[in-house]
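Hi R.,

Quick one: here's the Trans-1,2-dihydrobenzene-1,2-diol dehydrogenase sequence you asked about.
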Amino acid sequence: MAPTRWGFVSAGKISNDFKVALDTLPKEEHQVVAVAARNLESAQNFAETHNIPTAYGSYAELAAQKDIDVVYIGAIHTQHAPVTTMMLQAGKPVLCEKPMSVNSREARQMIGLAKENNIFFMEAVWSRFFPVYKKIREIIESGAVGEVKAVTACFGGNISHIPRVKERSMAGGSLLDLGIYVIQFATMVFGGEEPEDITTSGHLSDGGVDEIVTVVLKYSGNRMATLLCCMSAVVANEAYVCGTKASLKIPNFWCPTEVISPDGTHEFPLPPPEKPLNFKNSTGMRYEAMEVRRCLQEGLIESPLMTHAMSLQIAGIMDQARKVVGVVYDQDKE
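And here's the predicted structure, written out as tokens:
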């Protein structure tokens, strides 16, 4: 079967890690044939480092290349919607980094365009495709923890000095960068059920973005999720699923290699990287790449593990949370 031919938008840190992750998969299944950046030299350097045959100094050139099966978008948040739109209009399937958009309005437009043109489009919530997440779902469905009554998750670090995180003009803040992970975890555990109520509290940074936020999702049947994201302090970075019989602990829940359950610790080690990584456990991005290939081969326009509806639900929760804390982006005014 022919390899899935990838085109990369952006030659930044996350694109580096995704390419290293792809390199852990068989070359007859995944190949990167082109990379585009806003600066040609950056694209050329990336191409040289990663043995990619073609480099472009504009995204439009990559959109026009014929022999690309899917485009990976690793640009900054504010570029996700316009570049995804460009690629979908060019007939290219898209895997777009999380968050797929700055707000729900953009997300609805992007998904609408993909459906209108019958083209595959997925938000790269890479956590959802880890073997640990499959194991969590299996344990919950088996009844081993009883009825799930509570989910807690926290994610943060002192990253407030990074421009794309601290600048409002770049859609910075803890929610879009970190909060999406705790929110997607809770919505996954509760099966995409709509919360009855969303309670948010938080603090703004001097730059007008959310520095620290707590979100409480209240579900029917006396169930809750208590979530924390923070860009100015080091937190535990773990999640718990609490049931009437037992609980699960998931260290590094956004890129986990183990789940600690009533019957012991289930481990799912990752392959080692062949080149340096910028972020923790990034070779785990291989799992979302495998899912993209499967979906393309089966002619799907969305993945059942990360559906368009799931992305819209997460975007909606983040919209509500940002509104309460008082974060307004330029894209919200359009």
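The chain has a mean pLDDT of 97.

Cheers,
M.
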